[in-house]
């Protein structure tokens, strides 16, 4: 094992599980894909924000993943992702994780020293002009000035990523973990040309990045569909893939380097374009989902029995009363229209099927309410505060919840992205 290097396979799927009860149900969705001839590596991810709100630690995710793998007899590889970590919190994740998402978005657009920028422009000035991307995509049009702008925006952030990477390497050893660099949690999207120079800087820092998460155009709100022009996304996504393969060759980055889409879950309208691009370029991808598994837990509770439904309703009632507090941390990734949220009185008249219909992300269902869904999506704190009352109910209704969790991931995500169905 000493000389081997951990590699993230072509297709990988990031699973979030806020309460740590659905590891096996999640893994079963990946096993189902395997039965259909698609090999996907599961990656369990949890960010520090979630750990803080739920009261868990990185080691809980490690135990959940190991346990699910053992119980299900999964023979493939799998990883535990320290999601969106920085220098401040990386140490809490080092032992438990073997996949690190270095979040350096906060360092974007902080100025680097002019001589550092000058040296970068000098080194990469040879790309000014037209950069052909293998003929399938529109070439990049680059000027020295655009290289300078990109350097000014991203160099410091990439340097920061280098610091975090080297820190992890000093503890875990070279090749003993997967590195992702994420720049998605920022206001401004990165163009394919930006991506090229970000990758150049990453290569200069010596980071063996295997997956990179840029910010794409359009809105990636949590738990609901993509908001933006799918056609524009498609063109950008294809060019990003082409840039990655160009950068791999030019800068000597790892062969397995691929895009990571931090989907925030449920970006159904761009799953088709993603699938098409993966086929067209024979490219890999990492899809990182948010915690919609927790919504499947609510759906399962509502459908499971009267006491389960009462818990689900109670969570909604409290969420409505604390809407500002719960939505605050997610402000940039949700769009809730309060006027469209059902009143508590109305919800108290709903049966389990009606509650599930409002919550389940089925755009063809007349009961589906995206505002209701988004509010509940960010309200897991309320369930966390219920403690045992909530987790005991998860155990009681484990079967119906598990079925919903597996079906949701397999039918609504894995199938359209990886099987194109
Ligand atoms: Zn992200």
Characteristics of this structure?
421 residues; alpha/beta; TIM Barrel; 2 domains; 17 helices; 10 strands; globular; binds zinc ion
Strand order of the largest sheet: 1-2-3-4-7-8-9-10
Shape: globular
Present as ligands are: zinc ion
* Structural class category: alpha/beta
Total DSSP helices: 17
Q: According to CATH, what is the class of the largest domain?
A: Alpha Beta
Tell me the span between the first and last alpha carbons: 38 Å
Radius of gyration: 22 Å
Helicity, in percent? 40-55%
Integer count of domains: 2
Task: Look at the structure and name the CATH superfamily of the largest domain.
Answer: Aldolase class I
Blueprint of the fold:
Elements: E1 11-16, H1 23-35, E2 41-47, H2 48-54, H3 58-72, E3 79-85, E4 99-103, H4 114-124, E5 129-131, E6 140-142, H5 144-172, E7 178-182, H6 192-204, E8 211-213, H7 230-251, E9 258-262, H8 268-281, E10 285-288, H9 293-304, H10 306-321, H11 323-327, H12 344-348, H13 352-359, H14 370-377, H15 380-386, H16 388-396, H17 398-419
Parallel strand pairs: 1-2, 1-10, 2-3, 3-4, 4-7, 7-8, 8-9, 9-10
Antiparallel strand pairs: 5-6
Helix pairs in contact: 1-3, 1-17, 4-5, 5-6, 6-7, 7-8, 8-17, 9-10, 9-13, 9-17
The protein binds zinc ion.
Residues 84, 182, 184-185, 213, 262 line the site of zinc ion.
Architecture overview:
It is globular and about 70 Å long. It has helices at 23-35, 48-54, 58-72, 114-124, 144-172, 192-204, 230-251, 268-281, 293-304, 306-321, 323-327, 344-348, 352-359, 370-377, 380-386, 388-396, 398-419, and strands spanning 11-16, 41-47, 79-85, 99-103, 129-131, 140-142, 178-182, 211-213, 258-262, 285-288. The two termini are 38 Å apart. With 421 residues, it is an alpha/beta fold. Helix 1 (23-35) crosses helix 3, helix 5 packs across helix 6 (192-204) and helix 7 runs parallel beside helix 8. The chain is built from 17 helices and ten strands. The strands form two sheets. It has an eight-stranded parallel barrel, surrounded by five helices. It has two domains: 11-108 and 131-141 and 153-291, TIM Barrel, CATH 3.20.20.70; 293-401, no CATH class. Bound molecules: zinc ion.
């Amino acid at each position: 094992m000493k000389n081997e290097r951990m590699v993230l396979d072509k297709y990988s799927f990031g699973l979030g599980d806020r309460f740590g009860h659905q590891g096996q149900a999640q893994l079963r969705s990946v096993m189902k894909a395997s039965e259909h001839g698609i090999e996907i590596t599961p990656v369990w991810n949890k960010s520090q924000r979630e750990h803080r709100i739920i009261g868990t630690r990185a080691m809980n995710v490690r135990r959940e993943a190991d346990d699910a793998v053992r119980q299900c007899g999964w023979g493939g590889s799998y990883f535990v992702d320290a999601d969106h970590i920085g220098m401040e919190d990386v140490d809490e994740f080092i032992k438990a994780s073997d996949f690190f998402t270095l979040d350096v978005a906060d360092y974007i657009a902080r100025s680097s020293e002019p001589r550092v920028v000058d040296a970068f422009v000098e080194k990469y000035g040879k790309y000014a002009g037209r950069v052909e991307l293998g003929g399938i995509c529109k070439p990049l049009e680059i000027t020295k000035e655009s290289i300078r702008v990109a350097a000014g925006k991203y160099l410091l952030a990439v340097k920061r990523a280098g610091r975090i990477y080297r820190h992890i390497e000093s503890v875990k050893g070279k090749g003993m973990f997967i590195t992702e660099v994420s720049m998605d949690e920022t206001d401004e999207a990165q163009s394919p040309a930006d991506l090229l120079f970000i990758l150049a800087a990453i290569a200069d820092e010596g980071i063996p990045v295997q997956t990179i998460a840029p910010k794409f155009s359009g809105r990636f709100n949590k738990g609901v569909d993509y908001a933006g022009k799918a056609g524009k996304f498609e063109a950008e996504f294809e060019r990003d893939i082409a840039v990655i393969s160009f950068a791999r060759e030019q800068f000597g980055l790892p062969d397995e380097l691929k895009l990571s889409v931090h989907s925030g879950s449920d970006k159904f309208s761009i799953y088709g374009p993603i699938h098409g691009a993966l086929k067209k370029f024979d490219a890999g991808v990492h899809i990182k989902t948010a915690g919609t598994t927790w919504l499947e837990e609510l759906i399962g509770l509502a459908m499971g029995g009267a006491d389960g439904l009462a818990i689900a309703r109670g969570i909604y009632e409290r969420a409505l009363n604390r809407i500002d507090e719960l939505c605050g941390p997610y402000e940039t990734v949700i769009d809730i229209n309060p006027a469209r949220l059902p009143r508590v009185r109305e919800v108290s008249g709903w049966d389990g099927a009606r509650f599930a219909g409002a919550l389940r992300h089925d755009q063809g269902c007349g009961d589906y309410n995206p505002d209701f869904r988004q509010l509940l999506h960010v309200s897991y704190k309320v369930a966390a505060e219920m403690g045992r009352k909530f987790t005991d109910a998860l155990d009681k209704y484990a079967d119906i919840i598990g079925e919903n969790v597996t079906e949701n991931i397999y039918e609504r995500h894995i199938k359209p992205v990886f099987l194109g169905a």
